Amino acid sequence: MLLFTPHITSRLSYIVGFFSKEIFDGTPIRITSDRQEFLDTPGPRINYSAEPMDSIFSLTPVPLLFESGITAQTIKCFEYKGHKAFFATTGDFPFDIFAASFYLLSRYEEYLPHEKDEYGRYAYKNSLAWKEGFLDIPLVNYWLLEFKLALQHRYADLVFRYPAFKFVPTYDIDLAYSYLFKGSLRNLVAGGKELLTGRWRRLSERIAVLGGRRPDPYDAYEWLDSLHLYCRMKPYYFFLVAAQRKGVDRNIPPSGPGLRELVAYHAAGYRLGIHPSWRSGDNDRLLREEIEWMEQVTDNSITRSRQHYIRFTLPHTYRRLLFYGIDQEFSMGYGSINGFRASVASSFYWYDLEREEETTMRIFPFCFMDANARYEQNFTPSQAMTELMHYYYHIRKVNGLMVTIWHNNFLGTDPAFAGWREVYEVFLKEEVFWDV
After folding, report:
1. Do 239 and 174 contact (CB within 8 A), yes or no?
2. Are 353 and 315 in contact (CB under 8 A)?
3. How far is the C-alpha of 368 from the C-alpha of 173, rounded, in Å?
């Protein structure tokens, strides 16, 4: 496939590369700005210019991919084949799918002035996806299906890639245990508070766990091992290893044996990543120390990450992570609502919009997090199951990538999370037949 454009830009090359990976099976779309070469080349072609060309698939571009700098875009959405679209144009496709996809994948709107949420993050209510009602679907993937049909209508002999649906379970270990490995003083103070406030069940449980008579209610690790074995899954674990336990960074200390042993155990059989602490977001030394601790314990390079509390700011956070060797990033989603932050159910490389360059960091967007469902959306476990199946249905329909986030405390035996463990097990064992 050859694409003609009067001007080859970094933005255009990036998004055409994404389309090549998603649509074609190993044969990239080649871009040329040589009009005569384009006209002389036989076979399927795309004319991405305002110049009409007979018998060639044409898509008239909007200015976005030929611009430099970041400016507010005028976006008017309309309905196309049952879904929203924007950047309406002329030719053989009703909108500039390259520019629209680039706008969403690059997170262009997050570089523009915007309001923050209570944690200082990009608020989802700023997003076009939320305002236009498509946050809950992988819109770009649906566009790709229609684009393939349009190309096939013009070029019947085109051979396309037909990807397989893939599910990737991931876990954030923010609170490894409820009682164990927290230190005598911390347990003594907490137990004293429970005694004074009459929380007898909690106090009794604490004493039983510390005495070795009951398992820790947050300890879901062996249960997850069995589940993974049964479902033949290859999950990712992200560990919070904050040396400074303040605010939302409350895991057991990395200086003790509990976290070290837990990380080493999972490193032997699973894929691990760093869960950078909240405080490390403002402190390069802390981030470096946390990554180095993980590398020392796992005896391996740490190249994966997901930000604790989904705290990240573009482009600052991703640049820092790249600097410290992270090239697989799993934070692309919201920490306050479930859905598709980049409107896609596919992995993609991060484009640094300020520097106008594609990077080597591969982004794995997630669509569901248990904490969002419970704390932010106030869902019951059964409502969360309905939401999970909604995402599964849409991602399966486009043969996309489904990434979910669960926490070990949701999957343990604490009565405060009753029903969530069962939802996850039913979702994996009975509702979905995975091929991973």
Report:
1. no
2. yes
3. 16
DSSP per residue, 192-235: HHHHHTT-HHHHHHHHHHHTTSS--TT--HHHHHHHHHHHT---
How far is it, in rounded angstroms, from Cα 48 to Cα 62?
10
Please give the structure tokens belonging to residue 82.
Answer: 């049952």
Cα–Cα distance, 14 to 20 (Å, whole number): 10
Within the chain, how many helices (H) and strands (E) appear? 14, 15
| Contact between 309 and 278 (Cβ < 8 Å) | yes
CB 380 within 8 Å of CB 418: no
Enter the CATH code of domain 166-178+216-431.
3.20.20.370
> What is the per-residue pLDDT across 332-368, written as a single tens digit (0 to 9) for each?
999 999 999 999 999 999 999 999 999 999 999 999 9
From the centroid of its chain, how far is CA 124?
Answer: 14
Going from N- to C-terminal start, the domains of the chain cover 2-154, 166-178+216-431
Distance (Å, whole) CA 401 – CA 144: 14
Amino acid type, 362: R
Tens digit of each residue's pLDDT (9 = 90 or more) over 74-94: 999 999 999 999 999 999 999
